[in-house]
Amino acid sequence: MTRKALITSLMLLLALCAKAQFGPTTDADTKYAGSLPKVGTPAPDLKLKTINGKTFTLSKLRGRYVVLDFWASWCRDCRKDAPVVVEMAERFGSRGVEFVGVSFDTDKEAWRKAVETYGIQYTQVSELKEWKESAVSAAYGVKWIPSMVLIDPEGKVALSTVLTDKMERMLYEVTKAPAADTGVEEQVSIDGSKGKLAAIIQKPNLAPGTQCPMVMLLHGFGGAKEGPLFEIIADSLAAHGIASIRFDFNGHGASEGDFVDMTVPNEIEDAKQVYDYVSNLRYVNSVALVGHSQGGVVAAMTAGELTAEGVRAVVLMAPAAVLRDDAIRGNTMGATYDPLDPPAYVELWGGKRLGREYIKSAFSLPIYETAARYQGKALIVHGTGDRVVPYTYGERFSSIWPGSTYVPLEGFDHGFSQNIYRTDRIVSDWLIDVLK
To answer: For residue 111, what is the DSSP state?
Structure first.
């Protein structure tokens, strides 16, 4: 086979793989939640004995949101989820949500021991019957545990799922607290590598003459400063007295420059320009970097190049160091090319064009070598279900930063769509702890 034919075959194979990678996905609910009550239908009433022998009637909780948690002490997956459910019950209990654990245990002492082990404080009920003989199981179509059903104040089903992440995300949505003091936003324009960068500074309300940390939020390939995850993080930080700036890299969003001219090195230059800008604001006393996907690579390398200036902390969310391997393979975001002789550009989605300089620079980009110069505080968050950037890339950043914190989110995808609120809590809580 000739070199040209070999490259053509490889590019075809990679294109097919990329199509599968970016295609529709399903979650465990597709397989295991199908028999649970449908959204909008009345929730069957329950009248059961609690673990202390009292009579519990579900309909008496009408007017509140209620989470039914179907589980058993003998269920390994239930025991794995138990700490998460307990934490959810504590957090959302303060927002008026009632949690009720419905156990399929037949051994009352084993049930009681598990409740004590996990520190479960919310109501526990059971028939103490075999799962298949349980009237509750039949009424709610429980074919798999753990399963959860959310009932709205009118007594109708709002969500049926086997995924705690999905339940947590739903609870955040239906119990949104009044907005905290998230400061004020200011639109600014900053000189970048290819022209002006459009940016938004979110500044907390500060007493005159006081200072606060500043967090730079760096979006990913083809992204923009707008987006729910960065906006939620910015709000969380502002509510705790921390400023943030989110901006569009060159060729993205409202910033100047053409996407075809964008490269990781010139995004690093953009980041440095923004760093210089915010470092010189009178109310800023330190700067941290948070990057998602390609923005994570830019954040890591920028921190490595700014060791003299002293970046206070770095957070990488699904850092896309795979971009170098993609360039070597000749496949970026599903677009294929000859990596040894790339064209002037290759077509991407939405009319975007990936330029030759991006490919050439990515081919030999010293990602880890540069990032390793930074040895300060660092957090890496990566979903184990990420099919765009495998979580092993996050693990490698953790290994080059020995003092870093690595948080794998089981089953989460590249955009953390399973629960951006949990992602925000992990990132924001860590930053608040490190920066304040």
So the answer is: H
CA angle, 270 then 272 then 273, to 5°: 65
SS3 263: coil
pTM of the model: 0.83
> How do residues 300-353 score in pLDDT, each as one tens digit?
999 999 987 789 999 999 999 999 999 999 999 889 999 999 999 999 988 899
* Three-class DSSP category at 274: helix
Other beta carbons within 10 angstroms of residue 282's beta carbon come to 7
Average pLDDT over residues 235-258: 97
Helix (H, G, I), strand (E, B) or coil at 317: strand
For CA atoms 355, 360, 362, 363, give the dihedral sign.
Answer: positive
**Tokens at residue 37, please?**
């009550």
Q: Of 22, 426, 427, which is closest to residue 222 (Cα–Cα)?
A: 22
Query: How far apart, in whole angstroms, are the C-alpha atoms of residue 299 and residue 401?
Result: 14
CA-based angle 335:341:343, to the nearest 5? 55
Taking only the tens place, the pLDDT of each residue in 380-395 is 999 999 999 999 999 9
Residue 309 three-state SS: coil
How far is it, in rounded angstroms, from Cα 287 to Cα 378?
Answer: 13
Q: Are 89 and 171 in contact (CB under 8 A)?
A: no
Count CA within 13 A, CB hemisphere, residue 209.
0
**Burial of 266 (C-beta count, 10 Å sphere; 0-12/13-18/19+):** buried
E strand residue ranges, 15-155: 47-50, 55-57, 66-71, 98-103, 123-126, 147-151
Nearest residue to 166 via CA among 153, 149, 185: 149
116-120 long-range Cβ contacts below 8 angstroms, 24+ apart = 118/79, 118/82, 118/83, 118/86, 119/86, 120/82, 120/86, 120/89
C-alpha distances out from residue 412 to 217, 230, 318, 333, 398, Å: 20, 17, 10, 19, 18
Long-range contacts of 325-330 (CB under 8 A, 24+ apart): 326/362, 327/358, 327/359, 327/362, 327/363, 327/365, 328/363, 329/10, 329/14, 330/7, 330/10, 330/11, 330/14
**Among residues 71, 203, 206, which one has the least CA distance to residue 147?**
71
Return the H-helix or E-strand segment holding 185.
strand 184-192
